[in-house]
């Protein structure tokens, strides 16, 4: 559009100059003047043709600005997010520890602790728990730290699992009773390490017996009260 207006302006200016020139041209010199008129008219015609052929600028659709700090945006609910499983009620019936997921297994073990007299029982398992899945106070007042391992029958708990728990249960969590409960079994090196450091191991069979009330709870096991380390000097 700007280019077309410029061409028109040039044409008008040229035409004015032409009129002024013709007015002062002597007789017999109209040949060059006529040629100049034709050039100016050709420029005007070309300018108008260019104006008609120039495509219009495409309209840019307006975009909504991003929401400000005081505006509320819709948030879709996350599909598949299930609420945390409730702590089961133990009224004498056996609990299927393998039917629940890993987090539910921590709750069933915590429910056993509550059933057998523990107080201030908390399920603290999750990222960064450093092995303390269940924290409770035993009936005799000792601090109980339980790690829960819901493993398949063909996946025993190894010594590395016990060593990691042994490195935090006493020094970090202040356990006076440290217990590892699993739905599976323990390897021989794991049992040996647990006996050395004073961790009570409860395998799948022992867990079933504890759940059914056929055996006392693990904090009543003699290994649940480890001897303090000897002090040098």
Question: What keywords describe this structure?
Answer:
233 residues; alpha/beta; Trna Endonuclease, Chain: A, domain 1; 2 domains; 6 helices; 5 strands; 39% helix; disordered C terminus; tRNA_endonuc-like_dom_sf; Restrct_endonuc-II-like; transmembrane helix; transmembrane; Restrct_endonuc_IV_Mrr
Record the strand order, biggest sheet: 1-2-3-4-5
In the CATH hierarchy, what is the class of the largest domain? Answer: Alpha Beta
Helix content: 25-40%
Write the element-wise H/E pattern from the N-terminal end onward: HHHEEEHEHEH
Which consecutive residue ranges, at least 5 long each, have pLDDT under 50?
54-88, 223-233
Shape: elongated
Please describe the biggest sheet, giving its number of strands, its sense, and whether it closes into a barrel.
5 strands, mixed
Q: Give the radius of gyration.
A: 45 Å
Overall pLDDT confidence: 73
Strand percent estimate = 5-15%
Give the total of beta strands.
Answer: 5
List the helices and strands and how they pair.
Elements: H1 2-24, H2 30-53, H3 102-115, E1 119-123, E2 134-137, E3 143-149, H4 159-169, E4 177-182, H5 188-197, E5 200-202, H6 204-212
Parallel strand pairs: 3-4, 4-5
Antiparallel strand pairs: 1-2, 2-3
Helix pairs in contact: 1-2, 4-5
